[in-house]
Amino acid sequence: MNSAVVLLVVLWTGLTLYTLFGGADFGGGLWDLLAGGAERGKPQRELIEHSIGPVWEANHVWLIFVITLFWTGFPTAFAAFAATLYIPLTLAALGIIARGAAFAFRKVSDELWQRRLFGAAFAFSSLVTPFFLGTTLGAVASRRVPTDIAAGDPLTSWLNPTSITTGVLAVATTAYLAAVYLTADARRTATPELSDAFRRRALLTGAGLGVLTLAALPIVRVDAPHLFTGLTGPALPLVAGGVVAGVLSMALLLTRRYLIVRITAALAVATILWAWAVAQYPVMLPGLTVHVAATSPAVLDAVLWVLAVGAAVLIPSLIYLYTVFQREHPPHATHADIAP
Amino acid sequence: MIVAAFMVTGFGVAAVYAAAMLRGKRDRYHRLGFLVPFTVAAALAPVQVVVGDWAAHFLADYQPLKLAAIEGLTHTTQGAPLSLGGVYVDGELRYALEIPNALSLLAHWDPDALVLGLDQAPADLRPPVNVVHWSFQIMVAIGFALVALGGWLAWTWWRRRAIPRTRWFLAAAALAGPAAVLALEAGWVVTEVGRQPWVVYNVLLTRDAVNPQPGLTTGLLLVLAVYAALTVATVYVLRKLARRGPVPARALAPQEPSTASPDEDQTERDGGTP
């Protein structure tokens, strides 16, 4: 395995982590949108705020990681990708900005109309941002991003059957992951009725995601035949693994194993993402393979060393961050007690 | 840039407390709120001067055109002067105050060193001089004023362990916050405009780097609109928080768990329902 492939694996790991953590974050916003009126939805909104509050910024670090590695490691592919798909990428960037700002603003607003306004901005951008990001993946998967800079159609490159499918799948994935994670969070904070509500949603979105994925197959077969060949060829074991993990997750939800289902649900999503990568490997863009798109070996090796050193600092910190906020009684509880 | 960022933060935070102290709030909370960030920023101000000097040496070697634009130096000159003020018209810097040989001395540690002028590049590959020259002057002037302000505090602290008595000091410190931001922005203008028309010096022209897709202007306007709305909301929320006084429960940063304890959570919920 040469440096380019190692970097691609790291890049895809970053994308997987962004899907699993950032995705759940977006999904939290989606459930916030669907929580109901100001009074009825309040407990749900508080649970969501409590769950994503400590980590909502950390989760989006993965997107920065992926984009930075993409342009550093595979500059020619990135230039073509960003130039053709600038519209959905700009809209996704605006969504992320508006989302973070609105979330922070809502936290400090105490008048209802303001909480509603900022809440709506937060929830709406949580819905559309994963959709736009998803369409860009569909554009690459269906070979609609040519290698020449800005040679692709600015609209149909991401407004086409495959892209719409991946966009909708992305939104459904965020809703599913968030519901699965929140089910356990609700149980930990001793609110069984909320836990049941999110369990219902996890089951519903899980079933929906399964149906959507099945429905996507004929679309991909017609619209992106190369991808279909890959998915049913070298990537078939991963696709099968994803299906097994998905079905297992449903069973675990039914039997209320809320902690294990977090792992299997994440596995189901992750394996499908890796199945796509395997199905398309080694082609990044039409006529451009990973090895040709990769930057010079000197840069690749330097990047990999920097990543290794960075990971030694970052990974323990992230594990610590997540475990701190998953404890029964966070050590910072006294912090809030100072307040009048 | 990192040093400058700390300075902007330090002077910015200190300015808030300086303004409050001008309004008569001279308790320990405000004194500390002022002194801690101000001391950090003021200590870094002289460091920034050294870093700036280092950056100028770098420019002289690697981006001589930018240095020429900063100084409005048209012709490649031996023993070049340092120009203060002035306007660049018809290829010459006019009405500037010149310090003989100072530029050569600063850029190369040699009063007679050769400094490359704008004439090293054809006219269409030169940066706009007035913008770069004046941004640089503004940045340097503010930078030295901030060093002086820090020196003022250091002096009175050394003499009598206190903040200067005169209101002029606090007024200047309140101004130092926005001024530091202005200096930082002016520095960015020097860096970015001074490199034009190149986006990567001598490799890629800015006009060749632009995405050839249609509709980019609309995208830019959209980004401006979103940031304008966010600016309004930010100012509104910050003013609201400021009016509310010291640290209520909700004023915690969004990454802090305000609903951590179930008891407090309950009272809050009860309080919200009439």
TrEMBL record, chain A:
Keywords: Cell membrane, Membrane, Transmembrane, Transmembrane helix. InterPro entries: Cyt-d_oxidase_su2. GO terms for biological process: aerobic electron transport chain. GO terms for molecular function: electron transfer activity; oxidoreductase activity, acting on diphenols and related substances as donors, oxygen as acceptor. Pfam families: Cyt_bd_oxida_II. It comes from the Bacteria. The keyword Glycoprotein does not apply. It is found in: Cell membrane. It is a multi-pass membrane protein. The chain crosses the membrane at residues 6-34, 80-105, 117-141, 161-182, 202-222, 234-254, 259-282, 302-322. One of its GO terms (cellular component) is cytochrome complex. Belongs to the cytochrome ubiquinol oxidase subunit 2 family. This is Cytochrome bd-I ubiquinol oxidase subunit 2 apoprotein.
From TrEMBL, chain B:
GO terms for molecular function: electron transfer activity; heme binding; metal ion binding; oxidoreductase activity, acting on diphenols and related substances as donors, oxygen as acceptor. It is found in: Cell membrane. One of its GO terms (cellular component) is plasma membrane. PANTHER family: CYTOCHROME BD MENAQUINOL OXIDASE SUBUNIT I-RELATED, CYTOCHROME D UBIQUINOL OXIDASE. It is a multi-pass membrane protein. Belongs to the cytochrome ubiquinol oxidase subunit 1 family. This is Cytochrome bd terminal oxidase subunit I. The lineage of its organism: Bacteria, Bacillati, Actinomycetota, Actinomycetes, Pseudonocardiales. InterPro entries: Cyt-d_ubiquinol_oxidase_su_1 (IPR002585). Its main location: membrane. The chain crosses the membrane at residues 6-22, 34-56, 134-156, 168-190, 216-238.
